[in-house]
Predict the structure.
Amino acid sequence: MPFDSTSHTGNISESTTGQLSGVRVLEFGSFLAGPFMARLLADFGAEVIKVEPPNGGDQNRTWGIRAGETSYSWFVQARNKKCITCDLHLPKGQELARRLAAQSDIVLENFRPGKMAAWGLGYQILRELNPKVVMVHISGFGQTGPYKDRAGFGSVGEAMGGVRYLTCEPGRQPIRTGIALGDSVAGLYASFAAMIALRRAEQTGQGQEIDVAITEAVLSLMDAIILEYSGTGQIRQPRGGKLGGGVPSNIYPSADGHLIVIGGNSDSIFRRLMKVMGRPELADDPRYRTNVERLKHENELDELISDWTRRNSAEKIMTDLNDNGVPAGPIYNSADIVKDPHFLAREALVDVFIPEAGRKLAMQGIVPKFSSSPGKIRWAGPALGAHNSETYQGLLGLEQNEMEALREEGVI
């Protein structure tokens, strides 16, 4: 049964105020990396104007499970945004885009390198119209280098950035993490970089270009794998649920069929874990006393812990571990998440009205939390072209007859 929450409302408001109020972002993005970045800024009050082609819009509108004709993903990724249509293949559409960019603080695009310039929307042109503009490029391989012209989705970035190689059980084929990890990480870096550049533009009056490659965004997350290889020649191998380097840290089964992550890898926590298991003497066993020794006996130690968890319910395991300061958490699916009282109390889940569903539904809330001027969800992803009149007439000053002519010509 679909989740229909009634116990929490979250931080939802029609107010347009926020810490980024007054910042205008022009988004020429599709699918996820660019739109994810712009969503983060919109959550904190930036006015994000999302530009979509008139004939169908961003394909993310229809990908995956849908409410009516619109994907649930769309309602999350396009929340708080103003959606307009504009055909960038047409000269009149390109001119409209330039006029909008001239009044924007940040211009975001995630096409292949060179596409925006070919449309007369490259940084060199936009900076002449608006010297303070910050232009953010997100692509598979970046704006330079021998691979720059290659198509590159997040999946390719995850593969070449190194995360896919490690995402599997030892000896098994690499798998996807289940979410668009590469795109999301690139979007996070892009939003962070945009704020840095915006700060500098405020100080100097000069904007700049930002080049985010999905492959490099993923690579930057990959811990010390390159340094380890450079120093020792060793290639880090897949470890499944194990942390590696710190023992014990793995996934363990409960008597009632649940899976629990337990991290007992520091010496003091390991001692507390053994006490909970009723085996305090093992904390002083020479084989397990220090992490260096535990690493040599990882498999047998995991078996000892699994033997204990298999004899106990997940609730008892979690209670005993939490009461004794041992980090642990159950493996959650969506149904588990929406029932968790901690997520509800912190508004990690909020209810947002979805017109196509005809009711409020839960989605992820705002991250991170601020003590003042917190982020807000003002509306879910809007309909195609919902803000055409507000933007073109209100911002650019077009007359009604001009709007009608642009519609008839297929420009908007």
Notes: The chain has two domains: 24-222+346-408, 249-336. The radius of gyration is 25 Å. The first strand starts at residue 24 and ends at 28. Residues 28 and 109 are 5 Å apart (CA to CA).
